[in-house]
Amino acid sequence: MRPAKFPRLSPSALAARRKEVASRLGKVLPPAALLTEPDELRPFECDGLSAYRQPPMAVAMPDRTDQVQAVLTICREMAVPVVARGAGTGLSGGALPLADGVLLNLSRMNQVLGIDLANRLARVQPGVRNLQISEIVAPHGLYYAPDPSSQIACSIGGNVAENAGGVHCLKYGLTVHNVAEVEIVTMEGQRLTLGGEALDSPGYDLLAFIHGSEGLLAVITEIAVRLLPVPRCAQVAVAAFGDVAAAGGAVAGIVASGVLPAGLEMMDRGCIDAVNSFLDVDYPECAALVLCELDGTQQEVASQIIAVTRILEHAGATGVRVSRNEAERLKLWSGRKAAFPAVGRMSPDYYCMDGTIPRRHLARVLKEIQALSGRFGLPVVNVFHAGDGNMHPLILYDANREGELETAERLGGAILEACVAVGGTITGEHGVGIEKIDQMCVQFGEGELRQFHDLKAAFDPDGLLNPGKAVPTLARCAEFGAMHVHGGKLPFPELERF
Amino acid sequence: MRPAKFPRLSPSALAARRKEVASRLGKVLPPAALLTEPDELRPFECDGLSAYRQPPMAVAMPDRTDQVQAVLTICREMAVPVVARGAGTGLSGGALPLADGVLLNLSRMNQVLGIDLANRLARVQPGVRNLQISEIVAPHGLYYAPDPSSQIACSIGGNVAENAGGVHCLKYGLTVHNVAEVEIVTMEGQRLTLGGEALDSPGYDLLAFIHGSEGLLAVITEIAVRLLPVPRCAQVAVAAFGDVAAAGGAVAGIVASGVLPAGLEMMDRGCIDAVNSFLDVDYPECAALVLCELDGTQQEVASQIIAVTRILEHAGATGVRVSRNEAERLKLWSGRKAAFPAVGRMSPDYYCMDGTIPRRHLARVLKEIQALSGRFGLPVVNVFHAGDGNMHPLILYDANREGELETAERLGGAILEACVAVGGTITGEHGVGIEKIDQMCVQFGEGELRQFHDLKAAFDPDGLLNPGKAVPTLARCAEFGAMHVHGGKLPFPELERF
């Protein structure tokens, strides 16, 4: 829902505003760093949630922090909203532009500024790719642990904005646990440093606060990430189960044993079949597959593999395979890592859900998802970070079939509400963006939403950073309540749709 | 510095106000839960920073959340400031009362509300003691990991407010990493739930934000803590070194090896001597002692002990002793754990500093502390959480000697500024309180302090929660700049001094 202060502009009014904005931004950015032609804007009209597209009024592409300050200062003076974008891989529409806003693309700020080996920190600009960090420090036997599936492409600035996780976040934590310091620029053009090298800082924990704030509080302009030594040894155990409940029991057993796996994943039969036909990985054709990775010293891994194998067998695994070398370990993971593109081949479109539930309800929620899938008439395959209960139901649909996108979204909403109903949350790691903004009305009460808005206002009093994303207004929630009753008509009338 | 809106009241005005406050609070609290007589107020006039004492106007002792809501609502209507207190063990004066304020004592909210074994959570009221949690869940093979030295007495609510650490926080994290959910009551009387069972929550990370907020943002009324399985096995290696630099090198070597100790501590000769004369622990008389604890499965510990012993010897340890059983492990730790009371026997008074530095500067900062000790003419002994660089220099003095308290404080301030100068921070775990509020002016710039104040205002617009603590006003910083030049006269004229 568009905040009242940003009324829709007529085409001629928009053109005039664009001209004025371009003129002012053109004074603080080099020509190549400012885009205003329709063809130039199109690549930025959506992020990874490609069902929603909206070209911005202009795209600004700074390569230095002082340019970011200048752009934000001008936009604030002109009351122009700003949407920040990293690599555009986000899955919840957090970087979806506004028709009358500036899209602030940080991907040209892609320098590694320094590596501090003694302190195991790397200082980088926000456009540096997640995997690039590990590649750069690999010669020193170090790496950056958080590994979202998009890590080949996603930006570290975006990772901070979304507090990204990944397969290994079970053992190594989320982005916030792997970042020491962040420099931000506020809408007032002020540069602030949050955090520091120490384990904890005095004052308020602004470093944690900025993580997961989805572009609403400030623009991230520099990050000091914590590096870890590459584990000496890693092995994965892949176990087949005849039913999902048994696989869920195995996951619970592993966690209860006190072993902390580097990764603990599950895939259902639909996903296994998709992967087997996409890659030469040959997963067993079973109801559910569990992948459990252990890393550490050789002795640690050796003893943990024994313990985990015992637990898997005791829980009813019909077969357990353990990687014998690094090549085999990567091969066994390759299927899981290719789950999304594999599913993408099965169906013209898919809608990737992202919810988190208490682990103990895994089997029950999967049953409910199956039931909902039948009721709404669309297939759902499941892959998830079983270790922390973060689920990714993938809803298969065909956008060319009339009404199927809407059905997919309603099914998705119902799945998320089922997650919340068992005490879970509407997002594990993909953020709220525009995608789940209505479900925020279900998960939070009025008191909490007011608090969120007051804190946002302390950072961005004019509400110019990424308006309409992540945290719904109370008015929206009231309307969502009404809409929900009437069958959940799509809530984004002001955005152009593909 | 007293905020302008809280002018000092004359004794008769104070008495009248007390009467009015008592009358209104008396309608929402049982008689035994409201204290107003001078003798009743005295036990609450200071916390662990006993050099500063100030009886409050009244003490309110709720045992239920709705009573907390009622008290805060009344105080807000009357514009009466409120200072929250747990067990009063804090070391930075965070619970030091205000003469015209209400001291809100949470220690009667001391119920364990429930233990969720499947999910490994314990839900408790804020007055429950830290160690009490572990005692209660021990029969289930579980424990609560953060172990501040005061854990026998300190409250979990206070732990959240200070984001307390402890010897084992190196491996198990700070309080914020071990808490799933917190219920708070704001000054507006609103009850909010922060966090949840999932690894991450959508919206802003208010759970992290409340941790370490030192009573400035809200009153903590319920906490769901995460429980861990008690490690199967734990061993400690105690190594003696002929000089501090070698001990520092050993610490760096252990951390660099990738081993993550459960605890990694260091004590200097002054501390060793104090402990040896206080307890029957017989530490080697050396320049520096390193204690390194490993925990986990038997195989993990066995292999880590070998690795750590090798590193200690390679770094120049003159002797390494490894505990052979649980009794010996506890005995070897008993000296370190009794360091503060042992030092307390050496000197009429001591002032415990708390600063954090990047580990690599350990030897250098210790040298500087020695030099400062000589310059100011007061002895300093050192004990620290070497693993994360959190130092506790203990300044020995005699408050009965004219000017020695002031000298101790100036020496303390100089030590903290030395920590900041090498890129460290002014508090590791004891909080800012009143004690380090001036050093906040050194560590943070105007932009950051403004941001802190704006965020505080989003929670507590009238500035009634713990005013004058933790985050200095810009006016105070300006004055501190001037005071600092003139030799650092004590900045708390409005508070009664012992």
Structure explained in plain terms:
Two copies of one chain form a homodimer. The first copy, chain A, is α+β, with helices and mostly antiparallel strands. Chain A folds into four domains: 11-105, 2-Layer Sandwich (Uridine Diphospho-n-acetylenolpyruvylglucosamine Reductase, domain 2), CATH 3.30.43; 112-229, Uridine Diphospho-n-acetylenolpyruvylglucosamine Reductase, domain 3; 233-341, Alpha-Beta Plaits, CATH 3.30.70.2190; 348-497, Alpha-Beta Plaits (2-Layer Sandwich). Chain A has 17 helices and 19 strands. Chain A has helices spanning 11-25, 38-41, 65-77, 130-137, 156-162, 169-172, 206-210, 244-256, 269-278, 298-314, 326-337, 339-346, 362-376, 404-421, 437-443, 446-459, 474-485; strands spanning 34-35, 58-60, 82-85, 102-105, 112-116, 121-124, 142-143, 179-185, 191-195, 219-226, 228-229, 233-241, 263-268, 288-296, 319-322, 349-352, 355-356, 380-385, 390-397. In chain A, the strands form four sheets. In chain A, strands 12, 13, 14, 15, 16, 17, 18 and 19 form an eight-stranded antiparallel β-sheet that branches. Chain A starts with 10 loop residues before the first helix and ends in a 13-residue tail after the last helix.
Keywords:
alpha+beta; 19% strand; Alpha-Beta Plaits; disordered C terminus; 19 strands; 4 domains; Uridine Diphospho-n-acetylenolpyruvylglucosamine Reductase, domain 2; disordered N terminus; Uridine Diphospho-n-acetylenolpyruvylglucosamine Reductase, domain 3; 17 helices; 498 residues; homodimer; eight-stranded antiparallel sheet; five-stranded antiparallel sheet; globular
